[in-house]
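Bumping with the actual sequence this time:
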Amino acid sequence: MKRRELPPRLEAGAVWLVFHLFRLLPLDLASSIGGWIGRAIGYRLAVTRRARRNLARVMPDLPPAEREAIIRGMWDNLGRTAAEYPHLAEFRFGPGERVEVQGLEHVLAVRDDGKPGLFFSGHLGNWELMGFCGVQYGLPLHLVYRATNNPHLGWVYSRGRVGELIPKGPLGARRALELLRSGEHLGMLIDQKMNDGIAVPFFGIDAMTAPALASFALKFGCPVVPAHVERLGGARFRLIIEPPLAFADSDDRHAAIAAATAQVNRILEGWVRAHPDQWLWLHRRWPE
């Protein structure tokens, strides 16, 4: 083994151990411990400074104490989400289940319309639950994701999933087009910075944003469904699925893509403002 291969293998081994330790715990206990780790340890990490900068930039009128409460809540949610990951297959969706579903009729309509479809969300609540909801109701989603830098951690993303995982990048874009041409459905998280994206407002500040969602929707004329997860407390959630969007096309496709991307950023901003403690403020979302 080459020396440079040792750190990623050690990292993968540590992740494997933690993953299976949480897998042995009951779901509620795992979530509770994960939240404690997030609040007690994650909150004190240096990366938290980025969350403070982001919050101060887009919510400058918030008192410092409120910003800190949001950041602690963010770390609680992030720790719980990580600890719940080994238990994702245990979640059930619907009345009386761990995940309430609001707007299920939109999923069923997109499932049965005979066309390709797109779902988008952000890193809110336990964002990993949405793909599993689709499977329960007969609509497997192929998820576009950012591949890990450590090739030994691919199993973390693929474990228990039914749909295909599509890495971001040129090869992934071609695969996404193939799936949409075949009438399949894609799920995308749209709230991360993309250096070669387009600048559109997010919280009133231009942020580099991936245009793929708008580009795919305009190319195929397919429905675009906004959906996000709210944590209700502990390991219980509400999945909110909104009516499909119809983007306005024009002869200027670049302008149409920019307008559609700004539209989804406004929707995402509304979700974050409603539950700022459940969004991942650690991203480099705006120019620093």
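The tokens above came from a reply further down the thread. The mean pLDDT is 91.
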